Structure formats: C-alpha cells, structure tokens
Amino acid sequence: MNLENFDKQTVHWGYFLGFNQYDFKFDYINDEGDVLVAKSIGFNVGLIGNLRINDYLDLRLEPGLYYNKRDLGFPGFSDINDYKREVASTYIHFPLLLKVGTKRLGNFKPYLVGGVSGSINLSSEFDSQEDNSGGTFRMKKNTLYYELGFGVDFYLPYFKFSPSVRGVFALSDELIPDNDPNSPWTSNLNNMYSRGVFVNFTFE
Questions:
Q1: Other CB atoms closer than 10 Å to residue 74's CB: what's the count?
Q2: Alpha helices in the chain (DSSP H)
Q3: What are the CA-CA distances from residue 89 to residues 22, 65, 116, 122 (Å)?
Q4: What is the CA radius of gyration of the chain?
C-alpha cells in the first residue's frame, strides 16, 4: 500500500495539466440553417485545493487557465471573410466540486465528481465597439457552468496521480448580439451556451 495515510489529511494541495475541447449550443429564433462549429483541442493548467469531509467525500477548488479556439461558420454567406469567425478563448476557470469516492481498492480508488463553476473569458471582446460587420465576434465575459465527471486515483510511492474526464455545461447565455438588430450573423440567434470536455491529469 502506497501513501496509506494520504487521504486522512484535512487539507492538501496539488496541480493539474490537461486538454479540453469546447463547443457551442445555439438556440435559434427561426429555422434558417445552423451555425457550424469547428472544434479544436486546447490545454488546461491549474492548482488544486482539497478539503476532506470524510472517507468518501472531499470538497475541491480547482482554479485554472483554459485556452481553446473555435471557428464558427454562419449560413447564408458565400464570402469566406463573412462566413467564418474565429473565437479564441482564454478562460480563468473557478470550479467548486464535490468528489465522491469509493472505498480504496489497494492502490487505486474510482470516484465521481460534480459541482458548479464560473469563468472569466479574457478574450471575449465584450467591450469592443466593433461587431461581426467589422470581423469581431463578441461574447460575454463571465459565465456560470455545472460540471460532471469521473476519474481514478492511483496511489504511487511519492504522490497521487489522477486522470479524469469531465463534462462542462454553461448555465448562462454568452451571446452579445451585433449592434444592427437585423444582423445576418446574430439576428437569428436567441442564446449561445458553451459546453466542453476536460481531460485532466492531477498530481497531489
């Protein structure tokens, strides 16, 4: 048995590295064609603070930096300069999570994790005076989410290593409509929500 008393600590710290893939969910006013989203793989890095509640429950704070890029394709355009908008996002992400683990099985322990989070998008262009007519796609700066996932703790001789997969779903609308209410880019969009998948590797 490695690190036999590790989980008995009231508080411990760690860090994580990982990958992400973000998407958008759009709510449309009329059925005039979908906005296409070309997704890419981004990266995550951050810190972990863990508060032990009992043998099976932990409260975790995992602030991190998340970078990703999405390309949007708007229907109805033949010119690529009008059709395509690049959305590069740099999020400062603040999840507060409840980790529910099983009984430890030798040197590993499966768990479920879930909670709420908020983010600040440093690349949102929310204060830009230009909109899509000038080539700028704007988003709101602050977003709320709920998160659900699972992972496995592996107890190694000198640290605990935990790969995990988590789904992240926005609760708040992120769309900033164009200045023109008849904009061909945003006039048919009612709401826009981010959703994503995080794959994190934690070291505690």
A1: 20
A2: 80-83
A3: 10, 10, 20, 7
A4: 20
For residue 38, the model assigns a pLDDT of 95
What is the maximum alpha-carbon separation in the chain?
A: 65
**How far, rounded to the nearest angstrom, does the alpha carbon of residue 19 sit from its chain's CA centroid?**
10
Task: Provide the strand spans (E) within 29-103.
Answer: 36-38, 42-52, 57-61, 64-73, 84-101
Give CA–CA dist 102/9, Å, rounded: 17
Taking only the tens place, the pLDDT of each residue in 35-63 is 999 999 999 999 999 999 999 999 999 99
Q: How much is the pTM? A: 0.91
Beta strands in the chain (DSSP E): 11-28, 36-38, 42-52, 57-61, 64-73, 84-101, 108-121, 142-155, 160-170, 189-203
Distance of CA 70 to the CA centre of its chain: 13
Q: Where are the domains of the chain?
A: 8-203
CATH number for the domain whose boundaries are 8-203: 2.40.160.20
Question: 14, 48 in Cβ contact below 8 A?
Answer: yes
Nearest Cα neighbor of 175 from 191, 187, 188 is 191
pLDDT exceeds 90 at position 78: no
Residue 185 per-residue DSSP state: T
